[in-house]
Amino acid sequence: MNLSSSSGKLSRNTLISLINKSSTFPHLAQTHAQLILNGYRFDISTITKLTQKLFHFGHTRHARALFFTVPKPDIFLFNVLVRGFSLNDSPSSSISLYTHLRRNTDLNPDNFTYAFAVAACSNENLLMLLHAHSIIDGYGDNVFVGSALVDLYCKFSRVGFARKVFDGMPERDTVLWNTMINGLVKNCCFEDSIQVFKEMVTRGVKMDSSTVTAVLPAAAELQEMRGGMGIQCLALKFGFHFYDYVLTGLMSLYSKCGDVKTASLLFGMIGKRDLIAFNAMISGFTSNGETECSVRLFRELLVSGEKVSSSTIVGLIPLHSPFGHLHLACSIHGFCVKSGIILNPTVSTAFTAIYNKLNEIDLARRLFDESTEKTVVAWNAMISGYTQNGLTETAISLFQEMMKTEFTPNAVTITTILSACAQLGSLSFGKWVHQLIKSKNIEPNIYVSTALIDMYAKCGNILEAWQLFDSMSEKNTVTWNTIIFGYGLHGYGHEALELFNEMLHLGFNPSSVTFLSVLYACSHAGLVEEGEEVFHSMVNKYRIEPLTEHYACMVDILGRSGQLEKALGFIKELPVEPGPAVWGTLLGACMIHKDTNIARLASERLFELDPESVGYYVLLSNIYSTERNFPKAASIRQVVKKRKLAKSPGCTLIEVNGTPHVFVSGDRSHSHATDIYAKLEKLTGKMREMGYQSETAPALHDVEEEEKELAFNVHSEKLAIAFGLITTEPGTEIRIIKNLRVCLDCHTATKFISKITERLIVVRDANRFHHFKDGKCSCGDYW
DNA sequence: CTAGGGTTAG
């Protein structure tokens, strides 16, 4: 059509319709010319429409120029401009225009102005200022303004403010509810978002598919299948059309909750599957162990020519599969390198984590060292890798290296390092970390507190552990498990049982580990009936299937109390094949009660099941020694020698003024060696006067003394105690850590020493804690 | 609507 040739005047409506129909910028420019020719260049409604369309085509500069030709713009035109700038990546222009409007015109901003200007805020202060203005001008109650405020406060992570605005609104429409739910989800307040959603449903507010799309990720994140299905049912009831977005959200929910079957069904229903849908499905398959499916889907994605994102890669890494996926992880890694996919910190950390889980620490470390862009998360992954693999010293030194960088440890770092600390038993370092938490203002969340409790318990300070536990406002099952285990570790069986009952009373769900901790506590305190009762309730009431560890604990409880036949009967009736842990426990019990027949039976099974382990050989040879069958005992030791099975040497650690000192059996290398031996000699004299005799009976457990001739050697434990006595003030408590179990002689000797020197001596051996005080030990000679 | 690191376990 040729507009310029038309002779008659065009009406305003015709022009507006022409503007609306313009599909390209040149077309629109032509319409603009028509508009001028027809005398509408100052007609504000026509100009406004034109401005809107200009913004639509992204011609911000033209729109701005046009605006300044209008002599007396009205508030509507201003609003279009404020909105237009902010939609076209120029939110600062929106704000300047708003300022101009307030300062230089007589116009009053309206609800649209505020809604649009709020959306253009680039920082929190500005937002608050506009919030205040809107209230002053009487638009504080407007839903449009309210929605914008809620949205922006959430974007600046000010969930509390957003919530205040939301709660204060006298009327709320669907968009406002959606905005609130969406904002909460984006800020990881999943419970709250579901709460708001439920309130919305209860109040009968009309939902739409955006509501569903917004709330589904929260259900998925909480792995709340029931909640998620409720949402789905509601959506069905309200008869929504299941848009691809909703389907993707639902699929992702099922995928995260482990129902990949339903997820893949939904995946098939999605009309146009985008990358996000693929990623969710791939990661669902992977975390469910169906790695072939995820790889297949990944191939499909590659073939379709779609781009692959870093989420795709992270979703492919079989982080949650148990073991044996090293090959897969390596090939995905190889694929990334080959196809030039940049390992961003997230992807790189995911690889580090899987290598750590597969005990491929060196591979993980190489990746960590190579990554140019380290993050706190990467440091944490590496430190936790060392901790999980028992390399506690390396973990701590890497942590110290991190402290020298610009990275500050966060709650996760602290949790990990506390776990390392607990393994190591270093109370002084643990206390230092505790101080660090306070001084660096690290968020004392449940992980940190639980790790602290564990650290104090394992480093010997059960009182501090209890006080921390007692002061915690929020506890979970793991927290309870930790304190129960701690009490068991220190031999306080009755207290552990009391805590267990309190936990149940408060409605916490006991886990498999809970029962392990309780049974463990029973075995350390000789609570046979209680142990049997707990085991029974675990199986029959709580329907928790016992693991080998639970069985071993039961064997320990029965065996220690002398009911060896009963223990053997228990083993024979096990529904599973008993492993070395079970037989080993029985063997240990035989040692205490000197039952050579059952011991022989147990050790035969052990030599079959676990020929590499030395401890059992030592135990059996000790049993023969008890029977004074020395040739047999010696021949067993020969087997150990022949097979070059090394037994870890006994050593003991003591910290004095924060410095660790390590002693081995018969150690003379220490700079204070002369003083230490002199002190021991003096003590032994006093002990003899009080009735002490060296215990000649063989060691009960896997202790230091291996050969008869080593009997002259002083065990590392006594050396450490003597050193502690001469280097600390009288009355100071002495804490030592042994890598093996305490032998009978040392146990008796330590009791005497605690009496003579009036010291509290706390010993952590390979198995538990002993508190020696006034000639008695907290274990009641039952260990 | 998709993605990385953390606490308990004879």
From TrEMBL:
PPR repeat windows: 173-207, 274-308, 375-409, 410-444, 445-475, 476-510, 511-541
Keyword Iron: no
Ranges where the DYW domain occurs: 691-783
GO BP term, pick one: RNA modification
Keyword ATP-binding attached: no
Keywords: Repeat
UniProt GO MF annotations: RNA binding; zinc ion binding
NCBIfam families recorded: PPR
PANTHER family linked to this entry: PENTATRICOPEPTIDE REPEAT-CONTAINING PROTEIN
Similarity section: Belongs to the PPR family. PCMP-H subfamily.
Listed name of the protein: DYW domain-containing protein
